[in-house]
Please model this.
Amino acid sequence: MLTEWFRNIEFAYAWVLGLLLLVPVMVVEYIRRNRKMQASMLVTTTHFMQDTQSMRTALRPLPFILRCMGIICLIIALARPQKKFTEEQITGEGIDIILCFDISGSMTEKDFQPNRLEAAKEVALQFVRGRPGDRIGIVIFSNLSFTLCPITTDHNTVLSQIQNIASGYLQDEGTAIGSGLATSVDRLRNSQSKTKIIILLTDGVDFGGTIPPDVAMQMAQLYKIKVYSIGIGTEREIEEVIDSPLGPVTQKKKLEFNEALLQTLARQTGGQYFHATDKDALQKIYASINQLEKSKVQVTAYDRFTDKYFLPLMIGIVLIVLEMILRYTVFRKFP
Model:
């Protein structure tokens, strides 16, 4: 926790931290004085002194330790720790993008590591970080479709929502590509941006839903929205372990994949179709889309600081006061 605090903190008067060098000097001086004050006495036997060590004696350095910790906290407070926030003012024309994720059960197939959906999320996060000037939203679908995040320039929210995507989020099973695409079009139809695109990521096996893919495609054409479709997966057999009355059984399963539908959606809307067979291929696909759809954007950064000296100041004062109380009560020296 303390490490995380310092990682996000800058000091307005960093030179004040040089005063921390006084603490080792204080420690050395304390040790020197303590040794000097210890009396020495030559005796013939010491067996009767074995139990003279008391709790008070053992804790005698405590006030000094509290004093050192208090001074450290006060020096940190004097250095004026601040938390930095960077605000960006974006000018120019960006692109409005909807990331449309298939979260049906078939997206949990493990021909990608750890599975199709997790690999897609990981690469999508990299894509969003590389589009600072664009408005981006998220739609998810299985048998139903849902707007997880409307288009926004708040990319921290977009990144957070991508990380939260999980198969089964909508409960109803199915792969309603038409419904997912139609919801994505609806998110973009009122956009004033000259360029509007949907990145549709699915395994392309359409079943369920109330809107056919061809109707959703016509909607995209009407509002001049390009669809970049990414077919994720392969048509091959994999081995999977299932539970049976006799125990775990390994059986072969053929993975389904339908390219024709995704090719048609992309071609008819002016976009492109890509086929991802593994995570590396998926990264290259997003990089290709990044090059195809460029936006001219100028980003101006503004730094805003919030003072965070109050906490170390209060801790320092409490430690110093506690040290004084202990020094003049429990550890008080009598002449």
Notes: The chain has two domains: 1-32+54-90+297-335, 95-294. The chain has eleven helices and eleven strands. The mean pLDDT is 82. Residues 310-328 form the longest helix (19 residues).
